# Entry
Amino acid sequence: MDQRTAVTAASTKLTMGKAINSGLRAAMERDPKVIVMGEDVGKMGGVYRITDGLQKDFGEHRVLDTPLAESGIVGTAVGLAVRGFRPVCEIQFEGFIFPAFDQINSQVAKLHYRTQGMLKVPLVIRVPFGGGVGAVEHHSESPESLFAHLPGIKVVSCSNPVDAYWMIQQAIECDDPVLFFEPKRRYHEKAEVDTEATPYPLFRSRVVREGSTATLAAYGPMVKTCLDAANAATEDGHELEVIDLRTLSPLDLDPVFESVRRTGHLVVVSEAPGEVSIASEIADRVQRECFYSLEAPVLKVTGFDTPYPPSKVEEEYLPDLDRVLDAVDRSLAW
Amino acid sequence: MDQRTAVTAASTKLTMGKAINSGLRAAMERDPKVIVMGEDVGKMGGVYRITDGLQKDFGEHRVLDTPLAESGIVGTAVGLAVRGFRPVCEIQFEGFIFPAFDQINSQVAKLHYRTQGMLKVPLVIRVPFGGGVGAVEHHSESPESLFAHLPGIKVVSCSNPVDAYWMIQQAIECDDPVLFFEPKRRYHEKAEVDTEATPYPLFRSRVVREGSTATLAAYGPMVKTCLDAANAATEDGHELEVIDLRTLSPLDLDPVFESVRRTGHLVVVSEAPGEVSIASEIADRVQRECFYSLEAPVLKVTGFDTPYPPSKVEEEYLPDLDRVLDAVDRSLAW
Amino acid sequence: MSSPEQWTHPEPGGGPAATAAKPTPEQVIAGLRATNEGGAELVELLTPEGERVANPEFDQYVDDIGAEQLRGLYRDMVLVRRADREGNALQRQGQLGIWVPLLGQEAAQIGAGRALKPQDMVFPSYREHGVAWCRGVKPEQILATFRGTQHSDWDPVEHRFHPYTIVIGNQVLNATGYAMGQKFEGKVGNEPDAEATMVFFGDGATSQGDVHEGFVWAAVYDAPVVFYCQNNQWAISEPTERQSRLPLYQRARGYGFPGIRVDGNDVLACLAVSRWALEQCRSGNGPVLIEAFTYRMDAHTTSDDPTRYRLSDELEAWKLKDPIERVRVHLVRSGMAEQEFFDEVQLEADQLASELRAYCFNMPDPPAERIFSQVYAGGNPLLERQRDEYVQYLAGFEGGAH
Amino acid sequence: MSSPEQWTHPEPGGGPAATAAKPTPEQVIAGLRATNEGGAELVELLTPEGERVANPEFDQYVDDIGAEQLRGLYRDMVLVRRADREGNALQRQGQLGIWVPLLGQEAAQIGAGRALKPQDMVFPSYREHGVAWCRGVKPEQILATFRGTQHSDWDPVEHRFHPYTIVIGNQVLNATGYAMGQKFEGKVGNEPDAEATMVFFGDGATSQGDVHEGFVWAAVYDAPVVFYCQNNQWAISEPTERQSRLPLYQRARGYGFPGIRVDGNDVLACLAVSRWALEQCRSGNGPVLIEAFTYRMDAHTTSDDPTRYRLSDELEAWKLKDPIERVRVHLVRSGMAEQEFFDEVQLEADQLASELRAYCFNMPDPPAERIFSQVYAGGNPLLERQRDEYVQYLAGFEGGAH
Ligand SMILES: Cc1ncc(C[n+]2csc(CCOP(=O)(O)OP(=O)(O)O)c2C)c(N)n1
Ligand SMILES: Cc1ncc(C[n+]2csc(CCOP(=O)(O)OP(=O)(O)O)c2C)c(N)n1
Ligand SMILES: [Mg+2]
Ligand SMILES: [Mg+2]
# Structure
């Protein structure tokens, strides 16, 4: 059932980074209109090597080392998409997506609507995001909530190599623009990836651990943190259900509602600052959908509402196992 | 008590637009370091005439008709602020703030933090926002939630001429960068403004109508809608309390909590798309702070999660009196 | 026209020679404005007085333009002007939310528009009603945007005419990407089906980062894109000297592709220069920047009041350079058209205007459901639920529930 | 050096003459790379072989540089290189999260840095450790950023040296605004306290919209800002031809202010050209673009592996143009320094390195509260509550509650 444990003939152990690389390769082989573009994605294969080897194998016209400007990357990708290509843009680090914000908001998200559906913008914007890698400023942020507020684009995040392999391909196949958030600090985590399995649908969240005491909802880098917390919680006799949200816009909260109706307790975990965030949205929806089931208010465990701090204190900033369990305790004790 | 009704010697009837103009003028007279910059703000006085007459009276070095580029406006304003000026930037319409997103996120919001407080960035970005004016695309949006998610900046919105007059001056005096959202469709609403009154503090929300049946929380253009709804609701014997949030980041929700503890019902009203919005954040906080007081979940009445539609259907898109009252009814009937 | 180097900094490399070469503001403005001095800097084939002047370089690009073709260009300009005036009138009568007039820019737009081949692609800004006309988009189809029934109403693929873009500069990057795609697909070269892209923007737009990035990308990828800047002297209330010290066509110098200034009120010159530039691009020698030097004869939009910021003298001076009048004079003087022709065109224009009017009055409002449709190609269950709930809520009113 | 016009498009205005003038990729690269052919295009006062060549225009800007001053420049370069190598080593030893080497760019930075007056303001990118040195920022103060104890650790007002900016291009606009402020305050003119601003950025940065907008603003407001582009040939793995067809200093042409290319490995030339440019700006004749043609001798950062994308030949060729070596040779040949001097500087460098090292090992981690402080100048009650709750939560661990 769980792809991460199935081992078949087509199964290989891959890091998440390599899984995305393989997924990109598979998509490029399948469709000659898929092109990859960004800073240093070509000869060098990207600063995280996610596009490693692609330019060598697919040529400079399909893997473009672009000039250094993010609005240019996304803005030209829009034109390429309108022309019939399926561009996959890389933003080198999430902190550098902001120069492209205008193109994403004003063109990427709206062209389909503006033209009454006559134009499609099937592009993917890959964004390595999140902290925990000891980096300097602008290299550890979690801006996904901003994009989840924009109608017209879809936003997803993978948390493990299996999903990474499939989700990138599904995002490329999707006729809507997709922002694809990759948890950079999990790039090196490994799992068996069965390239012949039937993939789980892209825009669906998923229970990754069942439990009955309380529910944890998370995405991207925090899924592992929540799974670790759930493991630790068994010591106290708690069985925490963990849901990997996977799709952040549109949110797929039915599994969360279902879970909360059973457990009565929900903790939403995310690295991003908590104010006006995806975590807030989930709390809002759950308090409405599960009003009579909640035994405690929905709690958030998030990054603090500050700029990302110097890396020497980032472990304090980032939600960890203890903070998650503390929130679970607070919820249970409400 | 209520400044909007007090009529004194220093009191004049002003539209909101004129009130902001007067507030800007007062700030410029008080402090020679206050400068105004933006597209068409000089000779023409801005497309909404908010800066009317300022260039004539203060000169071209204090009221700058800038080149046409928003990143340039905000990016140079940062430098001017670091130099000791207090720039007030105008973004012509909210839909054009996005080219400046990077400067706002990466410099405006973070310079103070980055330099351990050694630099201040006391700039104001004025943004006419919201719909209901029959405009073409990009002229009717409500992007304030995006900015409320960014730590390091403050976000406010005025809903009436009195607040407009004072809040713009307070924002200019504030040592933090402030995004100042002006509800453009209320620019022509009038009220008595007493320029000698003691202003209400900037970062505080305010009960603008007392009531006991249910609570409405809104800001900017929707405050009037809520007041109208509250008036209409008296017909059904409902006394709705209306809270003008005024400050969107940081939110000042104590009056909301206090109110909800009395009424048990809260409807948050905003024109912006509802997902991952300020309204979500309020719902989230209230469900946590008032868990045992809520008799129904917090409801949101917001713009739909679509791009802003063609203006011929905008009245359907925008929350109106009926939709607010419908939500109140649903809340009361929960 | 005297070289701009005389009034601004000399060419780089000379180092200290630049000292004191700084132009006075008056010199900058004079340089930016200088247009009718003729000379190599401004391509003009038909003077404001309607005289055809020979141009050894560009005549070849219009040697197929005989009497019939010239009458055609005249007709185009008269019709688009008439449609434009009708749009303006419809706004005044409350039929449109706003109108963006092209008045004065007919030659710049028809010259460029008629230079395009069917296979070329066009990315307009928001004032290109004349180019739209050349792409087969009917004036009626433009009304939706300004009446607020739709954001955009023509099929961009069928017409190879992208929707209007309002966010200044955005389309320049989109067009550059499209042109890169043309190149990647092997559509650049000497085949008859070779393609190019033309993108329209204003003088104010040149300040935007996106326009610069479009220039950078196009240069680096040799994209077959013609950057067509209609310098109509104003960005709302701001004159060109708020955007640049140098004539805008010279911006291209810094990127290593040609920039050229054409009399934007001369339809023949605009046609010639556009054909040249498009040919450059189609054959793989792009990009090219064209500055069509013209004038916004009306307000920025119907919401604008230009008397607040510019003198009527200026307008009067430009009236003497009217793009339509000079063709009319030329047609008459050279015996290429009789009064009958002009009367016919007038009649046709009246016809067009009254059809446009009738069309406008009969435009239905979109249903409320329009709000929710075509947000996503692949759907969105949350939004569908939102729509359903709203439709149900509306139905409640019908039943008198509220 | 031959004029770039020979290999790329000719000057604009000529129209069709541009046909077929399109350069081949090889020509573009040759043009971008050409540096040592000398001539008017590249200002060089000290050859790689250490020979002083006369320059009628720029000699006057360094006529006060005698033996002592030259030894000072040499010392500066040796010390900043040594600090840089120590930074690199500290990263390798796990003491720093990352290091951004300046290796190879010492002349470009010291030349510019020593041209600045105390009242001038500087906006660096993230590689300007050499400029920092000239502004009195100690190498130690730079470590915080790369160790992750603070984002930035020096007082930008005291040193008139802005914090490092990592988002490519942002600081160019900030610097332009600052320079506008200098002008608005009347600090531009012939008074001895006249001010200018210098902003540093790389070759890759020239593609960013913000850099363009900085150029536009500076030109329109005559801002006293020197745009100092260190073209170190690479933007991480991308060579300059991914950003431009033309040599970068020529970008200025399109804006109407001077652009000049200087041998960025020649500290004397960098000093002269920077002094000239700053003087232009202080006296109201700004802005100016300088392209310091240099080479990134090391990796982009310690996270980078340049062998993936560039050949070692290139590095070897540039080693022959080392910025320090040519000054050493010149000092020796002209008898301006004895071995003793070099030994002293070496000693001083070793001393500096060991102090830096010691400092680094003793840097305390910031307290967790750092996360919450100085987010707002005027405070934020929600954040204060967040901080208090977190502190209380942490206290729970101490008490063994968890
Ligand atoms: C990014 C952005 N900023 C501001 C505006 C508001 N605005 C609309 S048109 C205009 C002036 C454009 O001038 P120009 O580029 O010369 O084109 P023109 O209208 O003269 O054709 C401005 C400032 C906008 N549409 N987009
Ligand atoms: C807006 C932005 N995009 C991407 C990056 C990632 N990045 C850091 S340095 C760099 C290359 C910069 O090259 P250049 O401007 O030549 O400066 P150099 O590093 O060579 O000094 C890139 C792409 C960034 N810091 N900011
Ligand atoms: Mg214009
Ligand atoms: Mg570089």
Observations:
- Chain C has two domains: 39-306+318-361, 368-402.
- Confidence is low (pLDDT under 50) at residues 1-21, 34-39 of chain C.
- The pocket of thiamine diphosphate (ligand 1) is lined by residues B 39, 68, 70, 92, 96, 99; C 127, 166-168, 201-205, 232, 234-236, 296, 300 (CB under 6 Å).
- Chain C has 13 helices and eight strands.
